[in-house]
Specification:
7,8-didemethyl-8-hydroxy-5-deazariboflavin synthase, alpha/beta, transferase activity, transferring alkyl or aryl (other than methyl) groups, binds iron/sulfur cluster, 9-stranded parallel β-sheet, TIM Barrel, CofG_family, iron, S-adenosyl-L-methionine
Amino acid sequence: MQIKNSCTVTYSPAYTIVPTYECFNRCTYCNFRTEPGQSPWMTLSAAERVLQRLQGENICEILILSGEVHPHSSKRQAWFQQIYDLCELALAMGFLPHTNAGPLSFDEMRKLKNVNVSMGLMLEQLTPALLHTVHRHAPSKLPEVRLQQLQWAGELQIPFTTGLLLGIGETPDDCWETLEAISRLHQNYRHIQEVILQPHSPGNQQSFDAPAFDPHQLPEVIAKARKILPPDITIQIPPNLVKDDRWLLACIKAGARDLGGIGPKDEVNPDYPHIQEQALREILQPVGWQLIPRLPVYPQFDGWLSGELQKAVRQWRKISSRTN
Ligand code: SF4
């Protein structure tokens, strides 16, 4: 694993596997979901074929990103098992899984900890006002449900990524309050490795009729977030949603130090192709920023992982130290 210095920006060489696009929530800004029952779930054998193709391509992280099956649905157990099996398969094939599948029960989180080096869940925004607008038909976006996930992750010692969606109807104060809530939880458990600041970027599928969050405001939000969040939490921004190179550099200058998972497709924002590694280097290097790959788990959390996961992580850290 790389040693970070002040001129370093990281990214995770990643591939996203989607067990299912179906989701019982209907967030109006969503460009990902399908109606429950209307799209087939990914089979293990299809996933195995994809993963075989990725072997030897220096991809480390497999992001298991799923639409949600209602906690009381008769399909919940099969859905959870599918996610677990996909993580186990990815791990057995030499990758490091990171799951983001919406709110889970404590027991589901505890089980997934065995097959994930880290996990994630966006807080989006905690203001209950959004329950009357973009989250009106999204029961799992209840602020207390999502905060509880962060607390459980801390209790279970799961290295965790969370984040805010910007420009969905929140006020600036709402935004600072959400960051303060993350900060408080982290001070209790020290388990948040990254906070993503994701600007709302309209896509073809969504019904939410609002302009994109002005990326030119991002540096200001990042600078304020940097003051609110403890220094051991990295701020991540998705570079494909910050199209202007100068402003991407301004975001980094303001305190963002990670560009997230870079792979063939941004499943959450399919209308915005990822900028690939070489193109990012060409933006960053001329002004002195070095882009380096990272693992989906930060070194300070290795000790929280099971022996088997630690072994897999050690192998990747060896590869990283040879190539960086
Ligand atoms: S944003 Fe996530 S939770 Fe909301 S509808 Fe889309 S997939 Fe479901």
